[in-house]
Amino acid sequence: MITLALSKGRIFEETAPLLARGGITPLEDPETSRKLIIGTSDPNLRIVVVRASDVPTYVQYGAAELGVAGKDVLMEHGGQGLYVPVDLGIARCRLCVAAPAGFDYAAAVRRGARLRVATKYVQTAREHFAAKGVHVDLIKLYGSMELAPLAGLADAIVDLVSSGGTLRANDLVEVEEIASISSRLIVNVAALKTRRDEVEPLIDKLEAVTRQ
Ligand code: ATP
Ligand code: MG
C-alpha cells in the first residue's frame, strides 16, 4: 500500500482530474466525507487528507510516500527529505509583497526604513528581504493577511495572489513578486529507494498526465 498526502480544497480539486486521467478515482470526496484516510480505485493506493502546510511533513517522515504541495509551502518547509520530481502545473498563483495603495514601498526600501511585514510565510519572507538587504520585523499570521495593513498591524504583507481581487477589495497593491507558484508532486527520498517498484509507476503516471 502506498499513501498520497493531499489537502482539501484547491489542491484536491485540481489533483483529482490528474489522477482520473491516470485511471485513479478516490472512493470518497474529502469535501463531504469526514474520513481522513480515503481509498482509491487502485487497491494499493490510499489518500490521507491533511492541512496544506502539513503535507511536506507527512512525506518527509514517510507517513505518506508521496504528496502534493504548493511551491509556497515547500519553500517555507525547506524541503528536507523530499524529492520533487514533477511540477503538476496546478493551483498556479504568485507569492507577492503587497502594501496599501498609498504606501511608497520603493521609497521606504530606498530610505532603509524598517518595515513591518505580516505573513504566514515567515521563513520565506525573512530570506527574501535579507537577500535584498531590507530590514523587516516579521509578524506571523495564520490567515486574513490582507487585514493587517488596514488594521495598522503591518506596513506590508507577503501572501499568495492569483487574480488580485482580494488585494483590490482591500485597497492593497502588489509591489513585488517573490516567486511564481504551482503545486508539485513530492516524494519521500527513502521510499523512492526502498519502494521504487511501487512509487515510481505513480510518479511516471502523474508526469505523463501532466504533460498531456
Ligand atoms: P490552510 O487552510 O490549511 O491554512 P491554505 O489556506 O493554505 O491551508 P489552500 O487555500 O487550499 O489552503 O491553499 C493550498 C495551496 O493552494 C497553497 O499552498 C497554494 O500553493 C495554492 N493556492 C492558494 N491560494 C491560491 C490561489 N488564490 N490561487 C491559486 N492557488 C492558490
Ligand atoms: Mg486558503
Overview of the molecule:
The structure is a single chain. With 212 residues, this protein is α/β, with parallel strands linked by helices. The protein has 9 helices and 11 strands. A 6-stranded mixed β-sheet has the order 2-3-1-4-11-5. A 5-stranded mixed β-sheet has the order 8-7-9-6-10. The longest helix has 16 residues, at 196-211. Adenosine-5'-triphosphate is lined by residues 7, 9-11, 51-53, 70, 72-73, 91-93, 160, 162, 181, 183.
Summarize the topology:
Blueprint: E1 2-6, H1 10-21, E2 37-39, E3 45-49, H2 55-60, E4 66-70, H3 71-77, E5 82-87, E6 93-100, H4 105-111, E7 115-119, H5 122-132, E8 136-140, H6 147-150, E9 156-161, H7 165-169, E10 172-181, E11 183-188, H8 189-194, H9 196-211
Parallel strand pairs: 1-3, 1-4, 7-8, 7-9
Antiparallel strand pairs: 2-3, 4-11, 5-11, 6-9, 6-10
Bound molecules: adenosine-5'-triphosphate and magnesium ion (MG).
Adenosine-5'-triphosphate (ATP) is lined by residues 7, 9-11, 51-53, 70, 72-73, 91-93, 160, 162, 181, 183.
Q: List the domain count as a whole number.
A: 2
Give the strand order of the largest sheet, numbering strands 1, 2, ... along the chain: 2-3-1-4-11-5
**CATH topology description of the largest domain:** D-Maltodextrin-Binding Protein, domain 2
Determine the structural class based on helices, strands and strand pairing. Answer: alpha/beta
Main pleated sheet: 6 strands, mixed
Rg over CA atoms, rounded to whole Å, is 19 Å
